[in-house]
What we know:
By secondary structure, the chain is α/β, with parallel strands linked by helices. It contains ten helices and ten strands. The protein has helices at residues 10-15, 21-34, 90-97, 122-135, 148-159, 176-183, 192-202, 232-240, 256-259, 261-273, and strands at residues 3-5, 43-47, 53-59, 62-69, 73-78, 100-105, 141-146, 164-170, 217-223, 245-249. The chain has a ten-stranded mixed sheet, sandwiched between helices. Helix 5 links the parallel strand 7 (141-146) and strand 8. The two termini are 36 Å apart. 41% of the residues are buried.
Amino acid sequence: MHTIIRCFLLATLLALPHLSSAAESTINDKAYSATKIIQSAGKRVGQDKQGTAIYQVHGNGIDIGYKLIGSGEPLVMIMGLGGTMEQWQHDIITALSKKYQLIMLDNRGMGYTTTNDTTFSYQLFADDVISLLDALKVKKSNILGYSMGSTITQKLLLEYPQRFNKAVIHATSTDGSNVAKALQGHASNAPPTVLRQLEATTHWKTPLERLPAITNQVMLIVGTADTTVGVESSKTIAAAIPGAWLVQFKKGTHHLMYEAPAEFSRIVLLFLEMNEMVGVR
């Protein structure tokens, strides 16, 4: 695996003679939640190439398209700018859905999700995700966001931390204006919704001063050859969030999960399955 992992708890976990009651409670809660199966809500509007049903629920002023795959603890997956839920790498979906129930959605104005005249912003995108979770009666979930989806994940952790367990932030940025500049040459023939996403991205700035208050367990993944978002944003966020993991794939680009799907899946599963909440009686 071509990764550099910042994780200092492995030896400590193995050496602990006892878990605190809080840690035991965390494990029991995880085991309990894994037995629950999220039931679909809303109306069925289609199916994907594998025959998985696609639904829409009304929330935050729009109809939000989504599908559910697998079983286990919930894992929300948020795609990047200009993408739909169909663009997640197939082998990654297969690997993650063996252990988790995936909640895969289309962002506002993309795929099966409608839009309206409300000005696009990352707060709006985050509220869309929360509206979907509310409709599905999911009180708490893990989350994986890619590119624009990773920035939405940042916003969700800042505004709705109680709704999430662990978070994987892949190919992210602390300054959306730099990303918009990097993509400017590809935007001339972009659909109107993608241009609205780009405009929202232009105004994104991570509030770095708020990151130390995040208590969720977070992992950042980035390719060292990612010229769209670069590596510095991931390093900056990882350094600011207490206990965050930073995983760098050597020579990986912005399309890392398509370049190394097996390794990507492996590190995500390792992170999600590890209990980092360690205590001694």
